[in-house]
Amino acid sequence: MTDNLTQKQKDYAVFLPAISGFYATFIGKQRNEHYVDPARIPSHIGSMEAMNWLNPVAGLFPYRWSLYSGGHANLDLAKQDWSEDMVRNRDPGSLMLGDSGGFQIAKGLWEGDWKANSGCAKAQKKRASVLEWLDTISDYGMALDIPTWVIHDKKASKACQITTLDEAVAATKFNNEYFMTHRKGKNNGGAKFLNVLQGDNHTSAENWYQEMKDFCDPDKYPDNHFDGWGMGGQNMCDVHLILKRLVALKYDGLLQPGLHDWMHFLGTSKLEWAVLLTDIQRAIRRHVNPEFTISFDCASPFLATANGQVYFENVFEHDSKWSYRMAPAADDKRYATDKRLWSDGVIADGIYPRWQNSPISNQLLMQDICYYKPGDLNKNGKEGKTSWDSFSYALLMGHNVWMHITAVQEANRRYDAGEHPAMMWYKRGDYAQFKNIVEDIFAAPTRDASMKIIDKYDNYWMDIIGTRGFKGKKTKNANSMFNSLFTEE
What we know:
alpha/beta; 37% helix; globular; 10 strands
């Protein structure tokens, strides 16, 4: 059972699995050593490369797009590291977006004073190594931004020495200037770079954009301007702000074909947004840039497995909520000698009400996941409580990745066939479909006309659930009002 997901992609917004370093280690190390005993690999999978979706020949579900973060990567490219080989030596036909690791700065995992012109040696060493890494392994790389939420988190502020919005903006500009000056250049085999937009409300997001937009301006930087946009903070979860920003980009000349062809939304996992972003992408292609692509990522397939959760079905109820469904998986040592198919066993034993098979799970046995018998010792020489070994996690991660990509593509297929999730239809006033509103916005003859349409549907934007689970009205909270009235010093 193989499933070529690359061929099924069509003109949808592109989901990028945010590859787990844990998962990548299994793919890479097996190329150089028996990291997993071949006898442990189920016969229908055969080899570890079957679990590598970036391998278009051997993969059970080839899919050419992914994201990998410098935050958990080995940035030292001078040393061979087989755990990184899934990314470093991927198929040349694949497309990799490299995340620069601003989250690690905010969490204090990359130590140093990250303020602009601080002269901190630790920060500079990391800045330089991240750029080299992105230029080497990525097709597109994210510029090294300081996430806005840092200034509201005392622990994060202390860790990176960024305490105000102005300092976050200045530090990001400093990083951008360094990247722009020292990048290899796309004409020299280097990566293209995305200009990351942050901001925790409409006011701060607008200020951030005005400070950063020049880095994408081909008139001001004809040889080394950035090549697209990364949407972080409020920009990636608030459709009202997203549409305003895209209109501004159109009329500021910063969505030009061949120059600004990619926009990525960080950490976007809600299934309904798969079709929402496709609608926006299609409208931009029709009216602004025919080469424009929107991508979005999340690490949910890997994080869910790490917590014992496995996707068992995807739900597409017309005019209702669309979602992935996951629940705790079977984990019992009594299954270690159980030769039933996994799909049969988990239903028969009431673990799941239904089960959707993937190319990974299609012929899995219960004992393939619940590997340890009572009395078996784990790799640390101890008897643990779980029946899973580390490869059990890798198998279920592969299944979850297929389920997530398939959900995104199936959502778009159903949407094109006339079905829709509830949030894609405005049920007040003129009962308009989201895709028709977006079409009108970008077909409008002037910037003012586009903005008037956006403003007309202000109530609708407040009803659309954002990618962080809250609705648009969260953008008009007390914090937003305070920032519109006062300046902090």
